[in-house]
Design goal:
Elements: H1 2-15, H2 26-39, E1 45-46, E2 66-68, H3 69-81, H4 85-100, E3 113-115, E4 117-118, E5 129-131, E6 136-138, H5 141-144, E7 146-147, H6 148-165, H7 168-184, E8 193-197, E9 204-209, H8 211-228, H9 231-247, H10 271-280, H11 289-297, E10 299-300, E11 303-304, H12 315-327, H13 331-343, E12 351-352, E13 358-360, E14 377-379, E15 382-383, H14 384-395, E16 397-398, E17 403-404
Antiparallel strand pairs: 1-4, 2-3, 5-6, 7-8, 8-9, 10-11, 12-15, 13-14, 16-17
Length: 406
Amino acid sequence: MRLLSMAMAVIALLSGASPMRAETSSLCAGLMQAVEPGLAGRDAAFIRSYEPGADEEGLPLGLSTTAFTYDNALAAIALVACGRVDEGRVIGNALVHAAAHDRSFGDGRLRNAYRAGPVSPGAALLPGWWDDHKKIWGEDAAQDGTATGNVAWAALALLTLHQATGEEDYLSGARRLMDWIMANATNGADGFSGGYHGYDPQQVRLSWMSTEHNADVYAVASWLSRITSEPRYRDAAQTARRLLDRTFRGDHFLLGTKPDGHLADGNLLALDVQLWPWMAVTDAPDWRRALRFAETHLAVDGGFDFNGDRDGVWVEGTAQAALAYRMVGDAAASQRLLAGLRADRTATGLLNATRNARLTTGLSIDPTGATTIQDFFYYKRPHLGATAWAVLAETGWNPFTGARVP
């Protein structure tokens, strides 16, 4: 198997998709500094998503053990982009194990988060904390749930590892995750729904559809269609794209749909929604107008905000924009953003999630719509996901296709 991995790496090098070019990346060095202690000598492990900020003695209990699936999938992809495939495999192995060993469900789903640390045999552990006041074990309903987009990102990580190593376990794992999406998130002919929310065993199905999620699903289904030639994956990609077509308004994308199927309110904006669809769908040049829309409506001094209130720099999204500029051939704009991102690096090696103390998103933590309280914030803490996106921008790696940007 090791010889096969080496052979696949040589093939990837010749095809331009090799991870073997980024050892001089300063952001790769920071990522490795942060994750290597948790990955070294382990076969499967998850990395905690956040570290305490400079003014914090520790993380809030709800984040103290949390390794978000999305952040870890991004980190695995970024490690491959840095040429650190073996380290990426440790996270990939954890994703494969978690999908096959759930404490309550046997359908192959992934949760939105897992407990940081090495993965042991048996059911993958979920995050949580001991509530000393109530004398109970506490968990977070959103972390216990399953967002369709997070399942897709895990599949993208496994496809990236399959491309880098040739190992069939990663391809099989990605197929199982995509099959779960097709079986559990199909929402008619024009897109995939949000997933599930809540505590075991009775979780709530999320009927709304997300532009962001469907860009992720399109990327996975298209990748699988390319390498397997199975019509069902081609059909799934077309289903996801129909939602993207529907939410494109000529120069920008709406968030998706409401639970009743109507389009989301036009005054709700998010930066990643303006970037991911055309990063994933490479044959839709008109969609790139959304980058200019983002410049007009979401840009702030030194980068981009999450939403339209422009209350600060969202580091993760600014890193996405740096990659987006590179994809459209604006190297100068990409490098300007990257210069600021390098300054966001902390002593941990990770970049802070935001440059000011707190950043609003205009969104609610509860995805069911039961509350409209805007309580989803980013804070100035070292963040794995933000760092991984910055690595992808610096190395020129498109995570939706597994190809380097010229």
